[in-house]
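Review session, final week

We close the course with one last complete record, chosen because it touches almost every idea we covered. It is NitT/TauT family transport system permease protein, a protein from Labrys monachus with 309 residues. Go through it on your own first, then we will talk.
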Amino acid sequence: MTTEALALPAGRSPRGRLMRGQAGPVAVVVLAIVAAWYLACLPMNWDALQRAMPDAASRTLAEQFVAAINLPDGKIAAPHQIVAAMVQGLFFEPPFGRRSLVYHSMITLSSALSGFVLGAVLGIILAVLIVHYRSMRKSLMPWVIISQTIPILALVPLLNAVLGQLDLPIIVPKALIATYLCFFPVTVGMVKGLTSPDPMQLDLMRTYDASKAQTFWKLRWPAATPYLFASLKIAIAGCIVGAIVAEMPTGAQGGLGSRLLAGYQYNNLRLVLWAALFTAALLSAGLISLIALAERRVLASMGVAGGGR
């Protein structure tokens, strides 16, 4: 029996099965990024390495590499240092202490979720108006698009200055910035979804003498639901970014944005910056996963193809 005959068919070997799904390719990309990250530590941290180890140039490459990936004040932190800082901040600090990433994540999350709810509702209302009223489509849609050309870094201090004079709680400007980044993808996605039914389907509803409300709830809304969930997954990530950006210029003592700013300003807190950055990324990924789970459940209950995956 030849070697070719003994070989497993393509896609049936363990490696083939692993790469056929989504986890395998993602793991390969993550491993490549981590490897490149470690290799970048030596040249990026060379100045700090020479300060910590004056005879670094005479050491072997392996010694230089090990020292470079364990420097506490290098320009770039090694992945294992970031993981250690995250574990320390998430699990080994008092949950409501200033050094706890759980505490800062909850502050950012409260602002982001408030803005997410407001932005999603606002986006859906705008989309319904744009789809059903020609005057709204001509007047609102250009402003919805133009609104996203305003730099958020200019909007944050302006909004803080205006709302600060009204003595509103500090969560209000942060939630409004999150709303600003949330409503646009929801509006665009819902306009696309509500107008997605085929003209023949709309004609059929008219043939049945269906009212506008019946056409909306029985045809347009089910057709728009997949677009809504796709928009919400984009919007929730934008809300996290908006809440973090809004925390930076306010001098807030809590929130992932304040931890990022502290890590940027003080060299001895450089690992804090990296830990806060990756905690924010994990927070966004977790929220997107929750929306994806809700999407599968809702679409499966509606009998939409792909909802049960």
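Two points worth writing down before the exam:
The longest helix spans residues 212-247.
The chain has 14 helices and no strands.
Good luck, everyone.
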